[in-house]
């Protein structure tokens, strides 16, 4: 973001929570959002699909992980605690302010399935681009 604001970059792809303030202050211009629908904070900014890239959706996501072999009752308890926290109104408001949309009532199985789908979507692109871990 500093390089964009200083004119060293002409474009920058950023997470919404980091970019909304500069758009609202008029320092940057949002061209599109990568989610499937427009953001409430930037209702006039189209999605990538609306801007001419149908089918393009990308998300920044956060997931709670536990070490392999963690007992299932512990995983169930942890999952319940996270889901309960995500229902707290103050946290829901804070996340909404950051353009974060929690998946309420997620289970370890639904989270694993979603992660597998993201890996299946992005892994071929990473490989084709020759990106490797350092």
Overview of this protein structure:
The chain folds into two domains: 1-59, Periplasmic binding protein-like II (D-Maltodextrin-Binding Protein, domain 2); 72-128, no CATH class. Helices cover 43% and strands 0% of the residues. The chain contains five helices and no strands. It is globular, with a radius of gyration of 18 Å.
Can you give keywords for this protein?
single chain, 134 residues, mainly alpha, D-Maltodextrin-Binding Protein, domain 2, 5 helices, 0% strand, globular
Question: CATH homologous superfamily of the largest domain - what is it?
Answer: Periplasmic binding protein-like II
Total domain units: 2
- Main sheet properties: none
Q: Supply the CATH class of the largest domain.
A: Alpha Beta
Number of contiguous helices = 5
CATH fold title of the largest domain: D-Maltodextrin-Binding Protein, domain 2
Provide mean pLDDT, rounded.
91
What structural class results from the helix and strand content?
mainly alpha
Low-confidence segments, ≥5 residues, pLDDT <50?
Answer: none
Distance between the termini: 24 Å
Order of helices and strands: HHHHH
The helix content, as a percent range, equals 40-55%
Radius of gyration: 18 Å
Shape: globular
Please tell me the CATH architecture of the largest domain by its name. 3-Layer(aba) Sandwich
